[in-house]
Fold each of these.
Amino acid sequence: MTDDTEKTKLQVSEETQAMLAKSKTSVDAPVKTEQATRDAKADAVITDKLANGGPEKTKDDTLVKKAPPPTTRKIPEPLEIERTARYGEAVLGERAKLLIMLRGLEVDPVEIEVEADFIIGRASQETNEMPDLDLIPYGALDKGVSRRHLVIMKREDTLHVMDLESTNGTYLNGVWMYPNQPRVLRDGDELMLGSLVLRIKFIWQDPPLD
């Protein structure tokens, strides 16, 4: 009789514990679900505020910094690049004057004079950067031109061009240039910055010798 009583008590105890556990789970579940919903809504508000410029307060009253200025647009790598070997004159003379023609755009050529390092890129109001030649008027932002895209350097009577670790890279006559490695620039060369193509024409004070 005693054994039967003990078994009955044990069964009742186990059933009671199971009911209590089930009851606790059913009570906690809505609480956790409601908390998750509130967190999701708060995160959505924060994301929306950031998209509209911020800074705003988050759900825990901490400040969120404004989103950084847009970086250089990454453009798809061209499927086909025309690789053209060019053997134009490399010696320019004492005064390094160039005409830069923008292929595919109905604009006048740009005349520049390279006395030292000449930076080509696009101006940025966010960072107050201003290259020596700003390509913003020629669609530089949409075409993937970096703020400091490349530099033309005068070394005695010759010019060299070097990519400055630009986002979309630089191609010289259809050949990709390794960043920070100067290459000789010749009369008639083509430089592709992102998808913007520049044709280089030397201006000699005196005609080059044959």
Amino acid sequence: MTSLNADRVRKLVTLAIHPTTNGNEALNAFIKAREMLAAAGAVPDDVFGDSPRQSIPPVDRGIVWMIRKIEAMETRIGEQIEMIKQQKLEIKALKAQVKKLETKSARPAAKSQAHASATLDGLVAALKVLRRIDPDMRIKTALAYLHAASHDGVSIKEVAEYIGTASEGSIRYAMQTLGSGRNNKPGFALIQDKTASTGRTRLYVLTSKGRAFLNSIRRALTQTRTGPELRLVA
């Protein structure tokens, strides 16, 4: 601890509050005076007011007030700096959490995209199985077969409603093409009318050949590679 040079402290404060002193010089003078007080373990009252350790004449109490105000401002600035540091740490932690969440959300998206791609590839492969029956098979005919494959007996009306067409005649033609054929033209023998002998509404079910093709389609749906484009027409 150094001895207190009270005269030097008073001169510095006088310089700081002089109206002709610019801002930087005033601030530097106040800081220097405070450092000298701190080094001597003194307080402003030891220089500017009555003190048991000093016999220095008192001066304007406003000087002491200004020094204390500067110290209080520095304390608040220090607190704000610490607060800013803490906020920066919190922002850094939040950014890390956001990055982690983005990484987690990106993984399901990538998996979903891969699944969608595999599903489309499988669908194309399944349609290629139908193409083995007829390279120019109509989509309407393919849908009629798939609907019959998923039900234990379907009628012409039910298939028309499923496909979304008002023309039961075109569906009847498709079912005949999938079945025994028409006009002396053989069909694909994939479905048959299980009520032909009863005289009731025709209900179509798969034949053994139709079930075999259905199994081929199911296997194809798991494939992930596609070949040449299909020629399915409406």
